[in-house]
Every structure is written in structure tokens, then in C-alpha cells.
């Protein structure tokens, strides 16, 4: 049994990919499996928290005791996040949110046409930046940064630009770690400090992250 470091706290976590529809049968998405976000939810439950898990489309079974909100698109994830964040002590954005969606979703299946097809995409809202910008009832806000190069610098840039309290830098170019794997490694950055967490199973890593977050709450 783990010490109840998060007893009385509510933790809201986003997990998995989003799906951005193009027409009734097609979408744009990514390789996030939800494993890292679901492991964070399980870890927060172990530490005694009340847990909201906002999940994009994944095939995993959610941890018993988590309150699950299923969403598909970034806009749906944003609605759920902005509803729950003001009632949370901690918000963790582990989801791989699509940065762009189709400017218009075709009502009917897009027909095969010429040799090239151009899709127009528009920017999605930045969910975690909106949570971090809440003027009242702002939770302790933790982001993830999935990077394939210059990981620490890009991650620290996201910490600053999105005005987060902590960012978990995830080098997703490392073989056997990151997207869809059972193992991962992270470097946590907050203030002027950092903590490197070497490769281990996602459940183990998630517990270390949640314990680290718990110590930052007043
Ligand atoms: O799900 P798994 O297969 O277990 O893989 C885990 C993971 C690799 C997906 C996870 O560890 C991870 O790194 N998640 C973040 C993925 C991501 O999209 O990162 P980003 O650098 O593009 O986004 C930075 C932060 O902004 C993230 O907290 C993201 O949730 C958030 N964001 C991004 C875009 C957007 N429109 N709104 C957001 O809130």
C-alpha cells in the first residue's frame, strides 16, 4: 500500500489520442495508446485521490474507481477539461491532442478524385494552456511534451509559454519507449529544477510522477 499523499485531492487527467473527423468514415489521429495517462490515473488512485480520467478513443480498461469521461475530438476534450479543471486540485495533460482539425467536416464520404487532394486544417484550442490560464480555481497544472529532438529545450519552452507548473519531457524518438509502448522515461521540469526519471514500466513511472506532484501541493 502507498502512503495517502493525495487523500482529499481531486486529480483530472487527459489520456490517449484525439480523433479529428474528415468525413463520416475518416479521421486524423496519432499513435497514443492511453497507457501513460491510464497509469497516471491508477497511480493517483493508489495515493488516495479522487480521479477524473478524460480519455480519447483507446482500447484499455480504465482503472477501477476512476470517473471516466470518453471523448473523441480535441473540441470535446476541451469541453470536458474546462468543466472538470475548476473542480480539481491537479490537472495533468497526458493526451496527444491533435494540434489541427479539418476546417470543415464533409457531411458525406469524400469521393476519390484527382491525383492530389488538399485538406485545409485549422488550429485546435490549446487545452492545457486554457486550464493554466484559469483566473480562479486554477489547478496545479502538469503538461507533457512529446519531442523527437532538442527535448529539454522544447519542453522548457512549453512549460513557459503555456504557463504550466510542471512539464514531463518525453523523448519519443527512443526505441521501445513513448507512444504505445509499455515502458517510458521522462524528465520533469518545474521552476528552475528538474528530475530525470530513467526508463521503467509506465505504472512505475506514473507513481513516481504522481508522488513528485503530490509534494508540490500546499
Ligand atoms: O498514450 P501512450 O501510448 O502511453 O503514449 C504516451 C505519450 C507519449 C502520448 C505521452 O507520454 C505524452 O508525451 N503525451 C503528450 C503528447 C503530446 O501531444 O504532446 P505535445 O508536446 O504535442 O503537447 C504538449 C502539451 O500540450 C501536452 O500536455 C498536451 O496534452 C497539451 N496540448 C497539446 C495540444 C492542444 N491542442 N492542447 C493541449 O492541451
Automatic annotation (TrEMBL):
Catalytic activity entry: (R)-4'-phosphopantothenate + L-cysteine + CTP = N-[(R)-4-phosphopantothenoyl]-L-cysteine + CMP + diphosphate + H(+); N-[(R)-4-phosphopantothenoyl]-L-cysteine + H(+) = (R)-4'-phosphopantetheine + CO2
UniProt entry keywords in alphabetical sequence: Decarboxylase, Flavoprotein, FMN, Ligase, Lyase, Magnesium, Metal-binding, Multifunctional enzyme
Keyword set includes Hydrolase: no
Pathway(s) served: Cofactor biosynthesis; coenzyme A biosynthesis; CoA from (R)-pantothenate: step 2/5; Cofactor biosynthesis; coenzyme A biosynthesis; CoA from (R)-pantothenate: step 3/5
GO-annotated molecular function: phosphopantothenate--cysteine ligase activity; phosphopantothenoylcysteine decarboxylase activity
E.C. no: 4.1.1.36, 6.3.2.5
Domain DNA/pantothenate metabolism flavoprotein C-terminal: 6-215
Region of interest (Phosphopantothenate--cysteine ligase), ranges: 11-218
Residues given in the record as CTP binding sites: 93-95, 99, 109, 125-128, 144, 158, 162
Obligatory cofactor(s): FMN; Mg(2+)
Cofactor details (free text): Binds 1 FMN per subunit.
Family: In the C-terminal section; belongs to the PPC synthetase family. In the N-terminal section; belongs to the HFCD (homo-oligomeric flavin containing Cys decarboxylase) superfamily.
Biological role: Catalyzes two steps in the biosynthesis of coenzyme A. In the first step cysteine is conjugated to 4'-phosphopantothenate to form 4-phosphopantothenoylcysteine, in the latter compound is decarboxylated to form 4'-phosphopantotheine. Catalyzes two sequential steps in the biosynthesis of coenzyme A. In the first step cysteine is conjugated to 4'-phosphopantothenate to form 4-phosphopantothenoylcysteine. In the second step the latter compound is decarboxylated to form 4'-phosphopantotheine.
Protein name: Coenzyme A biosynthesis bifunctional protein CoaBC
Gene: coaBC
Section of the entire sequence shown: 182 to 399 of 399
Amino acid at each position: 500500500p502507498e502512503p495517502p499523499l493525495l487523500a482529499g485531492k481531486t486529480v483530472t487527467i487527459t489520456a490517449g489520442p484525439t480523433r479529428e473527423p474528415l468525413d463520416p468514415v475518416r479521421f486524423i489521429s496519432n499513435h497514443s495508446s492511453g497507457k501513460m495517462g491510464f497509469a497516471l490515473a491508477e497511480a493517483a488512485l493508489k495515493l488516495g485521490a479522487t480521479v477524473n480520467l478524460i480519455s480519447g478513443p483507446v482500447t484499455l480498461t480504465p482503472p477501477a474507481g476512476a470517473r471516466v469521461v470518453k471523448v473523441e475530438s480535441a473540441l470535446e476534450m476541451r469541453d470536458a477539461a474546462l468543466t472538470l479543471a475548476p473542480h480539481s486540485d491537479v490537472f495533468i495533460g497526458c493526451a496527444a491532442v491533435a494540434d489541427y482539425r479539418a476546417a470543415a467536416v464533409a457531411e458525406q464520404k469524400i469521393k476519390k478524385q484527382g491525383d492530389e487532394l488538399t485538406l485545409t486544417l485549422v488550429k485546435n484550442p490549446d487545452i492545457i494552456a486554457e486550464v493554466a490560464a484559469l483566473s480562479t480555481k486554477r489547478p496545479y497544472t502538469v503538461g507533457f511534451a512529446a519531442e523527437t529532438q532538442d527535448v529539454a529545450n522544447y519542453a522548457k519552452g512549453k512549460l513557459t509559454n503555456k504557463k504550466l507548473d510542471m512539464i514531463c519531457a518525453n523523448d519519443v524518438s527512443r526505441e521501445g519507449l513513448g507512444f504505445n509502448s509499455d515502458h517510458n522515461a521522462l524528465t520533469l521540469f518545474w521552476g528552475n529544477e528538474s528530475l530525470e526519471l530513467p526508463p521503467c514500466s509506465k505504472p512505475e513511472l506514473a507513481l513516481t510522477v504522481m508522488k513528485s506532484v503530490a509534494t508540490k501541493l500546499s
